[in-house]
């Protein structure tokens, strides 16, 4: 709900906007009246997520998740709403919160609340609310966790280990979360199995490459309305996300520069036709900077100080740690010039930060297209089913789904797109399985 106050009539009154959230026993959202628009957005998303709809149809018949409580910390978007409905169709009870303070779509959260689903999320969450909502999901005592960034898993391991005995497994959606989980595994701190849904080909390739590539540019355009053509665009990191962002920026006429710490990826970037150089050099000539590394302070304060006037910085890594905003705020106070654009004065130069340094594709835009998230969320739904079928058999490690499940997801998607593929003949299968036939 919105409250309008004409402060010009009360110039001596300090106005403090209090907590005007819509709250119920099992929800806390911005405005329940947004549900009408949310239903329309869910309808559009569902029409574009035909692969996931095939999974949902089967789940409705077989109920593979009957009696299972699934706790989610994901971006609360229209696509995530369709995943929630799919899990419920499979018999699961669901509770959900956001995984980033700026990524919730308030109309979707309103629909979920109206449908009786346990949901705590709003766009622009305070840090206190963010962790309070995580703990609301934890209090739901999930048997399966679905996470994007590992905050839910981390919070359970640090403060609620008594619940772990009833957790079958967890599923992780993004590269940053996998990095954290592998660190937990290495330290022998991981106490229940984690399925790296992020590492599915149908997630890692489609979501990171095609999804992040398109939605990141979309977010920057909405925040700035800047022209990409002719600009020096510095892409920080050349993993799947960096490759996708670089290709889209190049397609818009930008001169792409890549910074990397990995030798092979630096080589790939060079062979793909991009200039590769250290950040300390790229900082001096870049016009637009996009971070996609999953690491901390990859654009540091020393880099920012050497940048050109009116440089634009955006992040598409999961956390707001990639650009050193904390140190930037120590030398300059931000001025909000557009809804998702802040201006800093650094040594007489204007430096623009998009989306407070958080995920720009969700802070200023709507995240990945529904078609992309269809394959990603097929992975999540089928990972939940796999965990239940293999309860007690999966080690407390980070594992991948079997290749045949990943291939099944790809098959569902090409069918949704009306694509037919070839099949091997008996002779070809025999040839591939033999070694005797040579030159």
Protein described:
This protein has 439 residues and is α/β, with parallel strands linked by helices. 43% of the residues lie in helices and 16% in strands. It contains 17 helices and 17 strands. It has helices spanning 35-47, 50-62, 78-89, 106-114, 127-139, 151-159, 175-186, 201-224, 240-251, 263-271, 279-285, 301-305, 325-331, 360-363, 370-389, 403-416, 426-432, and strands spanning 22-24, 27-29, 69-73, 93-97, 118-120, 144-147, 169-172, 194-196, 232-236, 255-259, 275-276, 288-291, 311-315, 335-338, 341-346, 349-354, 398-399. The chain has a nine-stranded mixed β-sheet with strand order 1-2-5-4-3-6-7-8-17, with helices on both faces. Helix 9 links the parallel strand 9 and strand 10 (255-259). Helix 1 (35-47) crosses helix 3 (78-89). The longest helix is centred in the middle third of the chain and has 24 residues, at 201-224. It is globular and about 65 Å long.
Radius of gyration: 23 Å
Instruction: Give the overall average pLDDT.
Output: 94
Number of helices: 17
How far do the termini sit from each other? 74 Å
Helical fraction equals 40-55%
Placed side by side, the strands forming the largest sheet appear as: 1-2-5-4-3-6-7-8-17
> The biggest beta sheet, please?
9 strands, mixed
What amount of the residues lies in strands? 15-25%
């Amino acid at each position: 709900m919105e409250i309008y106050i004409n402060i010009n009539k009360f110039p001596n009154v300090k106005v403090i906007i209090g907590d005007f959230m819509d709250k119920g026993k099992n929800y806390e959202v911005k405005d329940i009246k947004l549900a009408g628009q949310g239903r329309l957005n869910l309808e559009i998303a569902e029409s574009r997520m035909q692969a996931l709809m095939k999974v949902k149809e089967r789940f409705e018949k077989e109920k593979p998740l009957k009696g299972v409580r699934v706790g989610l910390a994901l971006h609360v978007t229209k696509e995530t709403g369709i995943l929630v409905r799919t899990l419920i169709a499979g018999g699961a009870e669901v509770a959900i919160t956001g995984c980033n303070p700026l990524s919730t779509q308030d109309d979707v959260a309103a629909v979920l609340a109206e449908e009786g689903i346990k949901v705590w999320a709003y766009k622009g969450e305070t840090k206190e609310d963010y962790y309070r909502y995580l703990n609301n999901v934890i209090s739901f005592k999930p048997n399966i966790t679905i996470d994007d960034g590992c905050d839910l898993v981390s919070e359970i391991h640090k403060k609620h280990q008594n619940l772990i005995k009833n957790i079958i497994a967890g599923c992780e959606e993004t590269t940053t979360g996998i990095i954290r989980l592998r660190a937990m595994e290495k330290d022998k701190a991981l106490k229940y199995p984690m399925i790296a849904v992020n590492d599915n080909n149908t997630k890692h390739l489609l979501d990171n490459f095609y999804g992040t590539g398109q939605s990141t540019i979309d977010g920057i355009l909405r925040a700035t309305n800047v022209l990409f053509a002719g600009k020096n665009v510095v892409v920080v990191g050349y993993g799947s996300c960096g490759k996708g962002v670089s290709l889209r920026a190049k397609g818009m006429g930008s001169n792409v520069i890549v910074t990397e710490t990995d030798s092979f990826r630096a080589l790939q970037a060079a062979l793909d036709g991009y200039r590769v150089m250290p950040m300390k050099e790229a900082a001096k000539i870049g016009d637009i900077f996009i971070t996609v590394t999953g690491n901390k302070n990859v654009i540091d304060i020393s880099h920012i100080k050497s940048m050109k006037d009116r440089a634009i910085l955006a992040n598409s890594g999961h956390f707001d740690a990639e650009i050193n905003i904390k140190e930037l705020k120590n030398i300059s106070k931000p001025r909000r010039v557009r809804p998702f654009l802040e201006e800093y004065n650094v040594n007489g130069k204007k430096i623009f930060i998009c989306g407070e340094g958080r995920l720009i594709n969700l802070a200023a835009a709507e995240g990945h297209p529904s078609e992309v998230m269809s394959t990603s969320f097929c992975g999540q739904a089928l990972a939940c089913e796999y965990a239940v079928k293999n309860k007690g058999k999966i080690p407390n490690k980070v594992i991948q789904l079997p290749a045949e499940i990943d291939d099944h997801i790809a098959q569902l998607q090409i069918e949704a797109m009306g694509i037919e593929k070839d099949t091997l003949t008996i002779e070809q299968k025999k040839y591939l399985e033999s070694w005797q036939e040579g030159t």
